[in-house]
Every structure is written in C-alpha cells, then in structure tokens.
TrEMBL record:
InterPro entries per UniProt: Epimerase_deHydtase (IPR001509), Lipid_A_modif_metabolic_enz (IPR050177), NAD(P)-bd_dom_sf (IPR036291)
Organism: Pseudomonas fluvialis
NAD-dependent epimerase/dehydratase domain boundaries: 3-243
The protein's name: NAD-dependent epimerase
Family annotation (Pfam families): Epimerase
PANTHER family according to UniProt: BIFUNCTIONAL POLYMYXIN RESISTANCE PROTEIN ARNA (PTHR43245), NAD(P)-BINDING DOMAIN-CONTAINING PROTEIN (PTHR43245:SF23)
SUPFAM superfamilies: NAD(P)-binding Rossmann-fold domains
Length: 348
C-alpha cells in the first residue's frame, strides 16, 4: 500500500506515521507538509519523519498532481489547526481547510487514489446542550475552523457520489496526549502544563462545558481503520464521530483529574464566567458498530500520565508556556514577525 499523509509534521501526524509504519506491512509512506512546525520537536528520540520513505515540503493550496499519482490512499491532516488560529486568519482558514481540502480530494479522485481520509471534528456540533449528538443531528459550527470542517464534509459527500474513491470523514473528539510535536493549546494538555509549571489549574469558564476527548494514539487507530474499512458494510462515503462515550467530560472533571494525578495541585474555577457556547456531548455508537476492532484504548488517566512523564522528561517548568511556541498561533505569529511567513501563510 502507498499512502500520502498531508500535515504529517504536526501534533497528530507525528504520531500517525509511527502507527502506519508499525501496523501496515510493506507500506510506502510519503509525507507532505508546509514545515511551519517542523522545529517544534518535543522528543529526545528519533524524528518521526524517519518513519517515512519520502518527505515533501510545500503548500497544500498547490500540491502537485505528481505526488498523488500511484498513491493508494491519502490521509489529509493539513489544516489551520484550531479556533484561535482560525479566528486570526479566517479567510485563510477557508482557503486551506475548505477550498484546498476539496481540491485535493477532487484531484486525488482524478488520479485514481482509492481512499481519501479526512480529519474532521466534533466541534461542528457547537453548542449542543446535554443530549449527545449523533452523525445525523444538525450541525452548529460556531467558529471559522468548525465551519471549514462542515463545509468540507458536505463537499466530500457530493464528490464521492460521482467518484470511485472511498472517502471517510472522521469527526474527531478534542485531541489530547503526548506527541513528538506536543501542542499545549488543547484543554487537557494545557491543564497538565499548568499543574506542572505553577501547581495550579485555572479554568476560565464555569467548568460545565462538555468536551469529548481522544488521545492522539487512538486518532491514529481510527485512521488505520479508515484505510481498511469494508465499504460494503460502511458505504462508499461515511462521516463518523470518533471517540468513546466514556470519554465525554465536563471541563471541570478534566481539571480535577489532572489535580488528582499531581497531588498538591489546586483548581480555580471561574463560576461567574458567562456560558461557553462551545459545549457538546457526542454519541459514538456508530463508530463502535463500524470499527469494533479500532475502539479507543487510551483512557483519561493514561493520557494524563503520559503527558506528565513526557513533559517531565523535557524538564518542563515554563510558567509562561502560553506565550511559547508550544501554542501553534504563537509559532505562526513569530514566523510572520521574523518575516519568514507572509500574512497569507506563504513562506517568503
């Protein structure tokens, strides 16, 4: 099997390529990445790109057709990665996350690629109240990032109807866990970093918003399933919530779990905060039915433990980590300030 992974040098991609190399015998792995975060390594081991047969650098808005030719599958991770970046670069988020993603899928189909796996997001459910959202429920994307994912899914389903390419939209829960390119602009990772560096976790909301979680290792397992899924059982196109019902948490529960794992940590919750509109519980029964052998295995306690161990190995003590390059928006803004990147996120 020949697989191209876009965005392979990010938080999730760095873990994914290790899993694909380990789990698929004889696989040919190629990566395509802008390199924005190539230097953001948080490991003392080998660089994850050594798991690839070939690494290409370029902008996803102009990926050449030649890289798609003869590929059996494309796993598409490349994206403006979260709400803060999406809010700062709203039009670019649409260009990269939506327009470039659909163009990539279309050209992959034209080149005869058999499988296209799209990293989507449960954030599309927006403010969804207490009832767990299923795939057929209405979407309520509240941010540029969420809107880009919803629009791409709609376009992929339409494209798939007239294409021989099997397409899968994986609506991932909120990512967490240790990675060779760790991000701290994720709720659980932020809480662990705060506890380690200050001994305190400050919850800016009232702690009640719901967040489903999934460890990066289990995200990789889901993408492995998408490469192999039986289309006779699951259909030519499928959009599926990826996570587990046991991993639907309120934000205050996450803070308290981290504090329990690191005795002496205090938790401060802003009970007077206005409601956080990004609150959603998610139903994962379809994923459990379709992918029984690829269900999440890394539960909250293990994710916390591996984050603590990984960050302690780095001697992490930075109380000002929210100003560091471990927050992806900071890295982009630093590139721009140093005139390495344009404000349209092209290398200069």
């Amino acid at each position: 099997m020949r697989v191209l992974v876009t965005g392979n040098m990010g938080y999730v991609g760095s873990e994914l390529v290790k899993v694909l190399r380990r789990e698929i015998a004889g696989v040919y792995l190629a990566g395509f990445d802008s390199g924005f975060f190539a230097h953001c390594l948080t490991t003392e081991k080998r660089a994850p790109e050594t798991n690839l047969d070939c690494q290409y650098f370029g902008d996803i808005r102009s990926i050449p057709d030649s890289l798609l030719k003869d590929m059996d599958a494309v796993i598409h991770l490349a994206a403006v990665s979260n709400d803060p970046i999406g809010n700062k670069f709203e039009s670019i988020t649409e260009d990269i996350n939506f327009k470039a993603s659909v163009d990539l899928a279309r050209r992959a189909a034209e080149q005869g690629v058999g499988r296209f796996v799209f990293a989507s997001s449960c954030s599309m459910y927006g403010f969804a109240g207490e009832e767990a959202r299923k795939e057929k429920d209405a979407l309520n994307p509240l941010t540029a990032y969420a809107r880009s994912k919803a629009a791409t899914e709609q376009a992929l389903e339409s494209l798939c109807a007239s294409s021989a390419t099997c397409m899968t939209s994986l609506r991932f829960s909120t990512a967490c866990g240790m990675s060779d390119r760790l991000r701290l602009d994720l709720v659980l990772n932020d809480f662990v970093a705060s506890a380690l560096s200050t001994g305190n976790i400050t919850v800016l909301s009232d702690g009640t918003p719901w967040r489903p979680l999934i460890d990066v290792k289990d995200m990789a397992r889901a993408m492995l399933w998408a490469l192999r899924r039986d289309t006779e059982q699951t259909g030519h196109y499928v959009a599926v919530n990826v996570g587990s019902d046991e991993q639907n948490y309120q934000v205050r529960d996450l803070a308290n779990a981290v504090a329990s794992a690191l005795p002496g940590t205090t938790v401060s919750i802003n009970t007077a905060a206005p409601p956080d509109k990004r609150s959603y519980r998610v139903d994962f029964s379809l994923y459990k039915e379709l992918a029984p052998d690829h269900q999440p295995q890394v539960m909250l306690a293990q994710s916390i433990r591996e984050l603590v161990e990984g960050m302690q190995a780095l001697d992490f003590t930075d109380e000002n980590f929210r100003l560091s390059g471990l927050m992806r928006l900071n890295t982009l803004e630093n590139h721009i300030a140093e005139r390495r990147l344009s404000r349209e996120l092209y290398w200069l």
